[in-house]
């Protein structure tokens, strides 16, 4: 059976990935900070789908914890066929009002962990001439944010993944940047971002996001933007002059990403 390693699988998009991949027959390696949630999810997936569910309790903002997850990805006796770098968070609010420690933790999780874990997984996949990496980015990465640096971190994830996808073409390894819009998860509540004014048509379901991403991955695409409304937004943001994109983003962000 193939094996998938998923970071941040206990809620939202990560939870949908864990359940969908287990349903497809993947054994799973679940990586998150809270041991009790990991154990509960592992038991659920094992009982429901008959797969093996391994857990690694790790805070990806911490170098030692990232090293342990990277070591698991380099273990060729237990190869990982699909890496889903899903863990990430936003501090919300104005850049200058955030504590530097919080911004640094955000950078470590959103950028450094994606870099390190992809770097750990890719050599083995290339040697086996097969494997997949999904890096969860955001539609926010297409737009400048004047708030917490979240948009900048996601712009990096998308560009990083696109570059690797181009560089590994023909190798049997596929890489995808998943760029969802606003998805019904705990993400915005944790970041203290009020989404009450967002039209329902712009709120995505996590299962839909995961379905679209896997379909795009298997079609050989390097970037997945689920939902026609967000595909249009991504296209427009690339066509408009950057000064106009900055002006629109500045008026609508209200200090938040």
TrEMBL record:
Q: Which domain of life is it from?
A: Bacteria
The family note in this entry says: Belongs to the short-chain dehydrogenases/reductases (SDR) family.
Q: Which UniProt keywords apply?
A: Oxidoreductase
The organism of origin for this protein: Actinoalloteichus caeruleus DSM 43889
Domain Ketoreductase residue range list: 2-182
- Please give the InterPro entries that the UniProt record associates with this protein: KR_dom, NAD(P)-bd_dom_sf, SDR_fam
Can you say what this protein is called?
A: Ketoreductase domain-containing protein
Query: CDD domains from the xrefs?
Result: SDR_c
Pfam families documented for this protein: adh_short (PF00106)
Output the SUPFAM superfamilies linked to this UniProt entry: NAD(P)-binding Rossmann-fold domains
């Amino acid at each position: 059976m193939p094996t998938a390693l998923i970071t941040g699988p206990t809620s939202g998009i990560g939870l949908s990935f864990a359940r969908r991949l287990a349903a497809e027959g993947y054994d799973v390696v679940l990586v998150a900070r809270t041991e009790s949630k990991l154990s509960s999810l592992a038991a659920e997936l094992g009982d429901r789908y008959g797969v093996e569910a391994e857990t690694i309790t790790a805070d990806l903002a911490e170098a030692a914890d990232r090293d342990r997850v990277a070591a698991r990805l380099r273990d060729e006796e237990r190869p990982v066929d699909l890496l889903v770098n899903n863990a990430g968070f936003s501090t919300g609010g104005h850049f200058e009002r955030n504590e530097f420690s919080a911004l640094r933790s955000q950078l470590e999780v959103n950028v450094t962990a994606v870099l390190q874990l992809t770097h750990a997984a890719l050599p083995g996949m290339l040697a086996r001439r097969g494997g997949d990496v999904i890096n969860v980015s955001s539609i926010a990465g297409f737009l400048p944010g004047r708030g917490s640096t979240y948009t900048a971190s996601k712009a990096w994830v998308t560009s990083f993944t696109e570059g690797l996808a181009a560089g590994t073409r023909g190798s049997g390894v596929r890489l995808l940047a998943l760029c969802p819009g606003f998805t019904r998860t705990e993400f915005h509540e944790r970041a203290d971002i009020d989404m009450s004014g967002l039209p329902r048509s712009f709120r995505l379901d996590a299962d839909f996001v995961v379905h679209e991403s896997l379909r795009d991955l298997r079609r050989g695409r390097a970037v997945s933007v689920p939902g026609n409304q967000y595909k249009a937004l991504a296209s427009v943001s690339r066509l408009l002059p950057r000064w106009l994109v900055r002006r629109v983003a500045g008026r609508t962000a209200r200090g938040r990403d």
